[in-house]
Amino acid sequence: MTPGERARGLLADARRVVVFTGAGVSAESGIPTFRDALTGLWERFDARALATPRAFRTDPALVWGWYEWRRTLVGRAHPNPAHHAVAGIPGAVVVTQNVDDLHERAGSADVVHLHGSLFEPRCADCGEPWPLPTDPADEPEEGRRLPPPRCARCSGPVRPGVVWFGEALPEAALERAVEVAAACDLMLTIGTSGLVYPAAELPHVAARAGAAVIQINPQPTALDPVADVNLHGPAARMLPSLR
Ligand code: BJW
Ligand code: ZN
How does pLDDT run along the chain (243 residues), one tens digit per residue? Predict the structure, then answer.
């Protein structure tokens, strides 16, 4: 049996499926990953200067401008065949590390965001949600600094609603993710390097609870040893071929 045939069999037999995704699932929508050589965001930008609470305190305009540029990129992108194939798995719970909204736009009904969202900024001081402007007139370019807007309640700086290094993941999201990982009979882990914790623990949680784990990734990853089937290829080609 080929790995593809094994994966198709596991998917056809599974009743509770969890789809765990990372930046690679959106790569073919034109959204850069973090750690891929040459094209990854952390190859071109310094994570410590952009994706930590200290970075935002030190240079809020640099950080806000960078995230507004990324929000613009995502806004222009479209879900790819991988997002659509995921949305076509009946009853699947999607647990994503991604801060984009492409799973939702492809039609996935149950999406858990472990690392927040580019579309839910909030006040850095009091936590008040900040309504995003609907007018796309002022679209920032890569590298352009932009002072963050001010909170209507306390006039604190508005920050992106994402989870930076050193910050706790949203409690309810992490709890639900662990719960569904421990209760599934199949986990598909797609397009993640499996290096960032605690998210990377989830395939191990599923495997320890007896679930089968299928990984889809063109490159070897930290999660290879935990996967029962490793499908080496791009998600937008591999996923649709499983159904
Ligand atoms: C394709 C493809 C195609 C390409 N098809 N595939 C244990 C040990 C050591 C350190 C730690 C530890 N536990 C915690 C830590 C610290 C830290 C951490 O994990 N560091 C590691 C890097 C070592 N974790 C944290 O700080 C977390 N918080 C925390 O632990 O809090 C504790 C706490 C508790 C209580 C109170 C206070 C604190 C938070 C982590 C937050 C991560 N944030 C980011 C940025 C989000 C905002 C933004 O977007 O800017 O999240 S970092 C970045 O990495 C982003 C991603 O979600 C995350 C994961 O990356 P992902 O998705 O895997 O992307 P890549 O690029 O790594 O991989 C892409 C993959 O796709 C590759 O494998 C490609 O091959 C593949 N691919 N094309 C399919 N077409
Ligand atoms: Zn406020």
Answer: 999 999 999 999 999 999 999 999 999 999 999 999 989 999 999 999 999 999 999 999 999 999 999 999 999 999 999 999 999 999 999 999 999 999 999 999 999 999 999 999 999 999 999 998 776 556 667 778 999 999 999 999 999 999 999 999 999 999 999 999 999 999 999 999 999 999 999 999 999 999 999 999 999 999 999 999 999 999 999 999 998
Residues with CB under 5 A from ligand 2 (ion): 123, 125-126, 128, 151, 153-154, 156
Q: Are 133 and 222 contained in the same domain?
A: no
Asked if the structure places residue 199 within a domain, the reply is yes
Pocket test for ligand 1, best of 33, 50, 219 (most atoms within 8 A of CB): 33
Ligand 1 centroid, distance to 163 Cα (angstroms): 10
Domain end marker among 138, 159, 180:
159
80 pocket-lining for ligand 1 (C-beta < 6 Å): no
31 lines ligand 1 (CB under 6 A): no
Q: How many domains does the chain have?
A: 2
pTM given for the model: 0.97
Domain range for residue 211?
1-30+78-116+169-243
Query: Which residue lies with its CA nearest to atom 53 of ligand 1?
Result: 34
Strands 212-216 and 229-231: parallel
Q: What is the CATH number of the domain that holds 56?
A: 3.30.1600.10
Q: Are 231 and 29 in contact (CB under 8 A)?
A: no
